Amino acid sequence: MSRFRSRYGDQPLHLIAVVITFAIAGYALTRIVASPEPISFALYFAGAIVAHDLVAFPLYSALHRLAGHAGSRVRLGRATINYVRVPAILSAFGFVVWFPLILRLDTQRYLADTGNEPPSYLGRWLALTAALFLVSGIAYTIRLRRGRPRGPAKGPPGPRSPRSGAAGPVEPEGPRASEPDAR
Amino acid sequence: MKVRPPRLPLRPPSFGDPPPGPFRKEFWRSPLRGPWLTSFLGSALLPLIVICAVTGFLSHLAYFPDLGMNRVGTPGSIHIFLFPFSWPTSPSWLYAFTQGLHVIAGVAAIPILLAKLWSAMPKLFEWPPVRSIAHSIDRLSLALLVGGSLFVFFTGILNIQLFYPWKFSFVPAHYYGAFIFLAALGLHLVTKVPVALRAFRERGVIAPLREDLAHTKPEPHREDSTAPLSPAAPTLSRRGLLATVGAGSIGLAVIALGQSVGGPLRRLAILAPRGETSSGPNGFQINKTAAAVGIDPKQTESSWRLVLHGSRRVELSRDELLAMPLSTQSLPIACVEGWSTTQSWTGVPLRDLARLAGSEGAQARVESLQEGGSFRQATLASTQVSDPSSLLALRVNGTDLSLDHGFPARVIAPAVPGVHCTKWVASITFESA
Lengths: 183, 433
Known about the structure:
The complex is a heterodimer.
Chain A: H1 2-8, H2 12-34, H3 38-73, H4 82-102, H5 107-114, H6 121-146, H7 150-153, H8 164-170, H9 173-176
Chain B: H1 35-62, H2 79-82, H3 94-120, H4 133-159, H5 170-203, H6 238-261, E1 306-309, E2 313-316, H7 318-323, E3 327-334, E4 340-349, H8 350-356, E5 363-368, E6 377-380, H9 382-386, E7 391-396, E8 399-400, E9 410-412, E10 425-431
Helix pairs in contact in B: 1-3, 1-5, 3-4, 3-6, 4-5
């Protein structure tokens, strides 16, 4: 047993699962190879991995880092970024799922299939994004009115006093948070 | 643990120090990443995947792939292993329900899938890249898992938006892609359920959700874990992250739900393709217009005849059909794309037409005036033909069908996938099952 483990790297159950997995995947593969466009299938399958792991992930990480740097320049609490980050992420989820309609990638087909001109999904998505940022801005303002945002209050020790310190310099940022994506 | 000297041919190749960048552990700074977070996201994702898989295979069953040319590039009898029953005709909203669920769950899974991929991303850059035979097989299967999940979910969401940038045929690609995805998921569960159970045992299943930002600490770093070696200070609690992902998931689900449930809820489908309703009795959603499939309106004028093939051949004009005993049924069009719309249809019961052709109890191959396309014809099972609410509809909501809804006559039948409710019917061939 332990000899098997040292040579294979896992327990025998793993090998059994591997055989079943690759048998099923192999069956599907033979059917795909027999289908009319196996190359297109392979391209999209591999392309999905590349698009996510090597394009989308580095891209959104870089964007996030940039936002973090920008946020750290303005002297705000460390959790303040969430009032921008959370609505931005939610808006991005909407885009990731509905981008073919938002970007009007095939309006001809839409018209032919549904019999209607597509409505402005881009406008709707932007309105949704604006609404998310507006809600976030309102939430931020409420936080400021009640006291400091919770993040910085319990964050790394700072010289500022719990109430009066944050309210002064931070407050004007509240409404501004709702603006950038309202366009 | 006993260490045995490794045998030569199976000795893992030795890799030196990791190259700079993501292969180094210091690169990954997020204090939220770790086995608990990934396990929690995985546990949220799994039920949605199970719903998608079950409803997906049920949809295959609902197409009766063994009959006629219904299989659309997918295998025939494989569903017998999965479901030892035949797709029923009751309740009439069954397919609208299962397929709506399929699309809603699939759309709702996207934020969780993306979050889970984010949480496990350091694994892609593991160093050394290969540790053992089992480890390298695992990594290969992860390519199938990640590629399979993205492929299946994104072909699905592009299909529901009528966007087909690829050359392959959607139905078999989505179907076989799911096989690859689910097979790899099985292996993933075998290797990762113990990891998840350990994370839940050590940190509690929901205990970390009680930690606010001030109490959010990184999971302890271990060799072989995604918990960071040099974590940055947290700016978001785990529950904050999960609430964001959950809100995204629910928001997307609501949009998809709107076009699936219809009625006043349809207005919620602001980003979905079937959120619009035109006015008038024929104003409900159209799957494909007559123009899109090349129907010449002249073919549908008074010269049109319905041809029945059975024990005898019968030809009927639209007036002759309207003179037969008509039935009115409230039935949904339920599209494989996850939207549906329930309307009141009036027409001749299919079983009356079967009787007229001398072929009671037969299955029916329904052909359209439409010249091409996978769904210019469909074979209905004998149970679907003999259900009293299955109609060759001539009218809808008290008025004649519009051309885009299948004038002069279309099939509408309970719990039958939309594309099997053939429009612009030219002939019905009754065949003994």
